[in-house]
UniProtKB/TrEMBL annotation:
Pathway note: Cofactor biosynthesis; NAD(+) biosynthesis; deamido-NAD(+) from nicotinate D-ribonucleotide: step 1/1; Cofactor biosynthesis; NAD(+) biosynthesis; NAD(+) from nicotinamide D-ribonucleotide: step 1/1
Cofactor requirements of the protein: Zn(2+); Mg(2+)
Superkingdom in the source lineage: Eukaryota
Source species of the chain: Oryzias melastigma (Marine medaka)
Recorded coiled-coil stretches: none
This protein's name: Nicotinamide-nucleotide adenylyltransferase
Quaternary organization: Homohexamer. Interacts with ADPRT/PARP1.
EC number per UniProt: 2.7.7.1, 2.7.7.18
Enzyme superclass (EC): transferase
Domain Cytidyltransferase-like: start-end pairs: 12-210
Molecular-function annotations in GO: ATP binding; nicotinamide-nucleotide adenylyltransferase activity; nicotinate-nucleotide adenylyltransferase activity
Family per record: Belongs to the eukaryotic NMN adenylyltransferase family.
GO biological process: NAD+ biosynthetic process
Length: 262
C-alpha cells in the first residue's frame, strides 16, 4: 500500500435552496464518493449555506423558511449540516467571502489554534493540519463564471486556486469543455474536481416550485418532511414567484454599478 497523505475535506454548497431538493442532497453524496475514490481525500463534513434574502433572485422566499427546509432535509444525515451565517447577513455576500468565513471557522475549531493569532485563512491553513474547505456546486454555477458582471475574477481565482471546487455535471452543461476553454480555470484545473452524474435527472428547484404552484405532486423530488413543511406554511404560490421580479440580482447590481462608475 503506498504511504500517501489523505487530506480531510469539508464540502460547502452555496445556493438558493428554494426549496431544497433531493438533488441538492445527492450532490453531496456524489462528491464524497468521487473524492474518496481518488484515495487522496476523506470528506468529513458537508455544509449547506442558503443565500440571504438580499440576493434578490426572482421567486426567492424568506431565508427563515429556506433554512428550516434545509434543516429538515438534513435531519437524517450524519454528515451534512446547515449553516445560517450567510443567510442572516443583511447584505448579499460574495461566495468567496462565505467560503473564507466558513474556512476560518473550521480553522478556529482546530486543536491548538488561538483566536487572537488567526489573521488570515491563507497563513493559518498552512500552519495547521486541519480539513480543507472545497466549494461544491452544479455545472450551471461553474458556467455562470462567464456571465458578465456576475463574478469578480479575483474571487474565482481565490475559490478555485486556493480552496478548490467540486462540480457536479448537470444536463445542458459541459464543465469539461468550459474549463478547457477558459485560460483562468485551466490554470487551476487540478483543483477542480468534475463529478459525472451518470443517473441523469433534471430536478431543479424551479421545476419543483412550478409543480407546487399548480398543485401537482413533488413527492420523491423533495424530502417528505420538507413537503409537509411547505404544505403547513403554504409556501410557493403565484405571488411568491413574483417576488423580486422587477429587481436586479444583487451581484449584477453591485458589479454593473462598479464598472459604470470606473
Ligand atoms: N440537478 C442538479 N444537478 C447538479 N447540480 C445541481 C442540481 N440541482 C441543483 N444543483 C446545484 O445545487 C446548488 C444550489 O442550487 P439552487 O439552489 O440554485 O438549485 P436549483 O435547483 O438550480 O434552483 P433554481 O432552479 O431555483 O435555480 C447549485 O450549485 C446548483 O448548481
Ligand atoms: N460573485 C459571486 O460571488 C456570485 C455571483 C452569483 C452567484 N453567487 C452565488 O452562487 C449561488 C447561486 O445560487 P443560484 O444558482 O440559486 O442563483 C448563490 O449562493 C450566490 O450567492 C455568487
Ligand atoms: Zn439554480
Amino acid at each position: 500500500m503506498p504511504n500517501h497523505k489523505v487530506t480531510e475535506v469539508v464540502l460547502l454548497a452555496c445556493g438558493s435552496f428554494n426549496p431544497i431538493t433531493n438533488m441538492h442532497l445527492r450532490m453531496f453524496e456524489l462528491a464524497r464518493d468521487h473524492l474518496h475514490d481518488t484515495g487522496q481525500y476523506n470528506v468529513v463534513k458537508g455544509i449547506i449555506s442558503p443565500v440571504g434574502d438580499a440576493y434578490k433572485k426572482k421567486g426567492l422566499i424568506e431565508a427563515s423558511h429556506r433554512l428550516e427546509m434545509a434543516r429538515l432535509a438534513t435531519a437524517n444525515s450524519d454528515w451534512i449540516t446547515v449553516d445560517d451565517w450567510e443567510s442572516l447577513q443583511p447584505e448579499w455576500l460574495e461566495t468567496a467571502k462565505v467560503v473564507r468565513d466558513a474556512s476560518m471557522r473550521i480553522i478556529l475549531r482546530a486543536p491548538g489554534i488561538k483566536r487572537e493569532k488567526v489573521t488570515s485563512v491563507r497563513v493559518k491553513s498552512k500552519m495547521i493540519n486541519g480539513p480543507q474547505l472545497m466549494l461544491l456546486c452544479g455545472a450551471d454555477v461553474l458556467e455562470s463564471f462567464a456571465v458578465p458582471n456576475l463574478w469578480k475574477q479575483e474571487d474565482i481565482a481565490e475559490i478555485v486556486g486556493f480552496y478548490g471546487l467540486v462540480c457536479i455535471t448537470r444536463s445542458g452543461s459541459d464543465p469539461y469543455k468550459f474549463i478547457q476553454q477558459s485560460d483562468d480555470l485551466w490554470t487551476h484545473h487540478k483543483n477542480i474536481h468534475v463529478v459525472h452524474e451518470w443517473i441523469t435527472n433534471e430536478i431543479s428547484a424551479t421545476h419543483v416550485r412550478r409543480a407546487l404552484r399548480r398543485g401537482h405532486s413533488v413527492r420523491y423530488l423533495v424530502p417528505e418532511n420538507v413537503i409537509d413543511y411547505i404544505r403547513e406554511q403554504r409556501l410557493y404560490s403565484a405571488e411568491s414567484e413574483r417576488k423580486n421580479s422587477d429587481i436586479v440580482l444583487a451581484p449584477l447590481q453591485r458589479y454593473t454599478r462598479a464598472s459604470s462608475s470606473s
